[in-house]
Design brief:
Layout: H1 3-22, H2 28-39, H3 49-53, H4 55-71, H5 76-107, H6 113-123, H7 128-137, H8 143-175, H9 179-210, H10 217-237, H11 242-256, H12 261-266, H13 271-285, H14 295-320, H15 324-329, H16 339-351, H17 353-384
Helix pairs in contact: 1-2, 1-13, 2-13, 2-17, 4-10, 4-11, 4-13, 5-6, 5-8, 5-14, 6-8, 6-16, 7-8, 7-17, 8-9, 8-16, 9-10, 9-11, 10-11, 14-17, 16-17
Length: 396
Amino acid sequence: MNTILGLGFILLVGLFSARLINKIKFPAVTAYLLLGILIGPSILNLTSQELINSSGFISNIVLGLIAFGLGQSFTREFFRNIGRPVLWISILEAVLPWVLVTLSFFFILKQPFYVALLFGAIASATAPAATVMVVREYKAKGRFTDILLGVVAIDDAWCLIIFALSLAISKALAFHTSNTFIFKVIFHSLIEIIGALMLGGLIACFATLFSKFIRTQTELLIYTLGFILLTTGLAILLHLSVLLANMFLGTVLININKSNLEFFDVLKLIDSPLYLLFFVLAGANLEIGLLKGIGITGIIYIFFRTTGKTVGSVWGGYIVRVEENIRRYLGLGLLPQAGVALGCALIAKSDFPEVGSMIFTTIVATTVIYELIGPLCTKYALQKAGEITIEHHQKI
C-alpha cells in the first residue's frame, strides 16, 4: 500500500470507526488508537513503512497545532481567575509522580538510584493531545475544563525541568561526572525553555504586525498555518521545545489583541483530519507485543505514576481551595502519556546503553495502556465534573 493510498484508507476507516465506537460511548481518540494498533505492523500490517516513517513529520505538525490552541487559554483573565490553581496543581501533579516512582523503583524493585530517578522523571510527563481531543469532541466547558487544559499546557515545562535535573544527577551517579556537568545540563535545559518562549513570542509579534494585510478567511488560514509551521520548524532546527514555542505563540497572540481569536477559529477548518492521522499513526507505532513483557516493572510504574498524578492534583487543589469536584477528578484527565515521555525515554536509551533499552521498552509498553485508558478517564472526569453530557457530544 503506497503512502497516499494509506492516508486515504486511514481517513475513511478512521471516520467510520469513530462513529462505530461512539455507539458504546467511547471517545473518538480511543477509536483512532485502536484502529492504528489494528492496522499497524503488530497485527494486520496494513500500513506502509513509508507512512510509518512519516509519523514524526505529522506528529510535529499536530503537536504544534495542539500547543498553539492551548496558548489561547492563557489570557490575562485566565491568570486572574485560575492562574494560581493551575500553578499549584501543575507543580504537585508533576513532582509527586517523580518522587513516588523514583522511591518505588529504588526500594521495591531495588533498581540503582540513577535508574529509579530516570523512571521518576519520565513519569512526570502528561501528553496534551488525547486530553485536548476529548475536550474538543465533547465540547466541554467550565472551570474544571479550564483548569485541566491549563495544567496540561504547563506540564510540559515542568517535565523538561525535572527530566533535565534528573538526567544530570543520573549521569553524575552512573559515570561519576563532575558537579560542573550537572549545572551545565540544568543550564542547557533552562536555555531550551526560555529560548522556546522567546521564539514563540517573537513570531507572535511578527504575525500580529503583518496581519493587517490579510483580507479573506482563506488567506487567514494560510497565514496562521504558515506561522505555526514556521515556529515548529525553527524550534526543531534550534533544538527547542515544539510544544512550548507554539504554546507561547498562541499565548502572546491572544494577549496582544483579542481580535486575534480569529487565528484560532480558522484552524478548525482543517485540524480534525490531521488529529485523526496523528492518533491512528500513534497507534500504528505502538508495539502491542511489548505488553507481554511489561511485568512487575510496568505495573509498579503505572500504579505509582497514576497515584502521583491523582494525589498531586488533590493536594494542589486543597492548597488553593478549589471546588471538591476539581480536586477529586482532575487527576484522571492527566493520565495520558505519549510524545514527551517517549522523547525522554529515547534520551535515556541513548545516554545509558546498559539500562536504556529496559527503560525505553517499559515506557513504550505503558504508553500503549495509558493512551488507551487515558481518553476514557478524561471523559469520565469531565462527566463527573458536570461539564459534558451525552447531548454535547460532537458528531464525527
